[in-house]
Specification:
By secondary structure, this protein is α+β, with helices and mostly antiparallel strands. It has helices at residues 15-19, 59-66, 72-86, 93-101, 112-122, 127-141, 155-159, 163-171, 174-187, 191-196, 200-207, 215-225, 236-245, 261-272, 276-285; strands at residues 2-5, 28-30, 33-38, 41-48, 51-55. The protein contains 15 helices and five strands. It is globular and about 55 Å long. It binds a DNA duplex through helix 5, helix 6, helix 8, helix 9 and helix 12.
DNA sequence: ATCCAGGTACCCA
DNA sequence: TGGGTACATGGA
């Protein structure tokens, strides 16, 4: 195994939190070892303290995939500064508790196509079920590689399958979305590459044209697949955390009752700043461990 | 057994 | 524009 030695102060990183925080579903864990594929190659990863052991990929590609070249302390500093600016200099105990709990979590750089398919599969499911579903799709429609790993199914592979066939991977009603979205991407191979060059709101509008992609899936793909840090995916957990832990905020801007997706996402961008997407993921990763957050009000 | 989950499309006022 | 509902499936 090759090694990367991290400097914890400068390059905080936690492999388990990074791969198991709900941003990616393609990795398989065995004890302290994770196996998966990056860029078509079978990769093995392990972490012991400040040492990452790896093989199957170049150091450079791994650093890029794990986003180890991002200045994470700088990102956290920017979030804290934004909080401080919109909060009269008062530190935020909710965010600080989450940041401690999720320390070393990084938003990785996923392949946009894989990310898109995974988050179409994610809707209205829990993380264990999503993971199982994705692995079933890879096994059935991907190419077998070494070590029992399968490549992620290509747009062509998913396009030639009927929705009925896709349903066998317990994708349920999402099978139609997968099939239709795969056809769009196959027909227009520049659809996803074009997204990268757009400003966030245009990129979101574009990607929401795809069947099965609403605001939440769009934001996940933009954040995890394209690195748009303004993207704030709002699911039931984030909604609950924001509305229950920041009750003083007038999220709904005087509207009737429950605030909209954009009310919550816009407030997060205002409050957490340019890296609101990262703040969101830190809160999501801490959803069951910040006491009282899990008491979902109904 | 019941409820819920990294939601979306569609319909209707 | 905004609110209600069907949708398939499996985990807790």
């Amino acid at each position: 195994m090759r090694k990367i030695i991290l400097q914890p102060e400068k390059t905080p990183f936690h492999l388990e939190r990074t791969l198991e925080c709900g941003q990616v579903f393609t990795w398989t864990r065995t004890g302290e070892t994770w196996k998966g594929m990056i860029d078509g190659e079978v990769v093995t990863l392990r972490q012991s303290g400040s040492v990452i052991s790896f093989n199957g990929i170049t150091r450079k590609k791994l650093i890029h995939y794990l986003n180890l070249d991002q200045d994470l302390p700088g990102v956290l500093g920017a979030i804290r500064l934004s909080i401080s600016n919109s909060h009269a200099g008062i530190p935020d105990p909710v965010f600080e508790a989450a940041a401690t709990f999720a320390s070393g979590l990084r938003i990785i750089r996923q392949d946009p196509w894989e990310c898109l398919i995974c988050f179409i599969c994610s809707q209205n499911s829990n993380i264990p079920a999503i993971t199982k579903r994705i692995h079933a799709l890879c096994k059935k429609y991907g190419e077998p590689g070494q070590d029992g790993q399968y490549t992620f199914p290509t747009p062509a592979a998913l396009s030639r399958e009927s929705p009925e066939s896709l349903r066998l991977c317990s994708t349920g009603y999402r099978a139609e979305y997968l099939s239709a979205t795969a056809r769009v991407i196959l027909t227009d191979p520049m659809f996803l590459p074009r997204i990268r060059a757009l400003p966030y709101s245009d990129a979101k509008k574009e990607i929401m044209q795809l069947p099965g992609v609403g605001p939440k899936v769009a934001d996940c793909v933009l954040l995890f697949g394209f690195g748009f840090y303004e993207a704030v995916p709002v699911d039931v957990w984030i909604r609950s955390i924001i509305t229950s832990r920041y009750p003083e905020v007038d999220l709904c801007k005087g509207k009737k009752q429950s605030c909209s997706y954009d009310d919550i996402a816009d407030w997060c961008r205002l409050y957490f700043g340019l890296y609101a997407g990262y703040a969101q993921q830190v809160l999501f990763a801490s959803r069951t461990c910040l006491p009282e957050i899990c008491l979902m009000e109904k």
